[in-house]
Design brief:
α1 packs across α4. By secondary structure, the chain is of the alpha+beta class. The chain has a 4-stranded mixed β-sheet with strand order 2-1-3-4. It has helices spanning 3-94, 102-114, 130-140, 171-199, and strands spanning 122-124, 146-147, 155-159, 166-170. 72% of the residues lie in helices and 8% in strands.
Length: 200
């Protein structure tokens, strides 16, 4: 084999080795680029998922705050309306004694209070109601000690002789006992009103 053939064989072999090295380098480059793209896509997806989760949490927080603020406002409106209704009820009840049916109301309150006591109970009434109380007691055929001086819009207090049991059956005490039932009733009426306003 001539020198020229040997040199050509060496050159061909070197060229093949260079080609193989270049192909391997290209394959490695493509593999690394592909892996880098995959990692970048995964990182991008992770960052997007985290950002979406944070945005959803913030939206939920804002929504919760808005609902809480609305609820507080509704409670404040309900309380204001309840206090106004209570004030109006007090004003109306304070005028009950002037009504034509007050004698019947008073008689019912007195009978109800007496039912909880044994004979000998002391009946306390406003000075304005002393004559009315005497009349009701006469109708009932009861002889009971009667005391004036009670400050009330109307009604009675009945005390057992030793004051261990006191039955309050005044208009004020009836309103006070009714308050827990009136509050949810007014709240439901306000909700109905809100619904009608929303439909209009």
């Amino acid at each position: 084999m001539s020198l020229q053939h040997i040199l050509k064989a060496i050159a061909d072999d070197a060229e093949q080795q260079v080609r193989a090295i270049l192909e391997e380098a290209q394959t490695r480059r493509e593999t690394r680029l592909s892996e880098a793209r995959r990692q970048a896509d995964a990182l991008r997806a992770q960052i997007l998922a985290k950002a979406e989760a944070e945005a959803e949490q913030e939206r939920a927080r804002l929504l919760h705050r808005a609902r809480l603020a609305r609820m507080r406002k509704l409670v404040a409106v309900q309380e204001t309306a309840f206090q106004a209704a209570l004030q109006q009820a007090r004003a109306l009840l304070a005028q009950t004694r002037a009504r034509d049916d007050y004698p019947a109301i008073f008689a019912a309150l007195l009978r109800e209070a007496l039912a909880a006591h044994e004979p000998g109970a002391i009946i306390h009434v406003a000075d304005e109601d002393l004559a009315l109380a005497r009349g009701v007691l006469a109708e009932l055929g009861r002889d009971a000690p009667l005391a004036g001086g009670l400050t009330t819009w109307g009604g009675v207090e009945v005390h057992c002789p030793d004051d261990r049991i006191i039955t309050l059956n005044t208009l004020e005490s009836r309103l006070e006992r009714a308050e827990p039932d009136l509050r949810p009733l007014l709240a439901s009426l306000l909700k109905i009103g809100d619904a009608k306003d929303a439909d209009a």
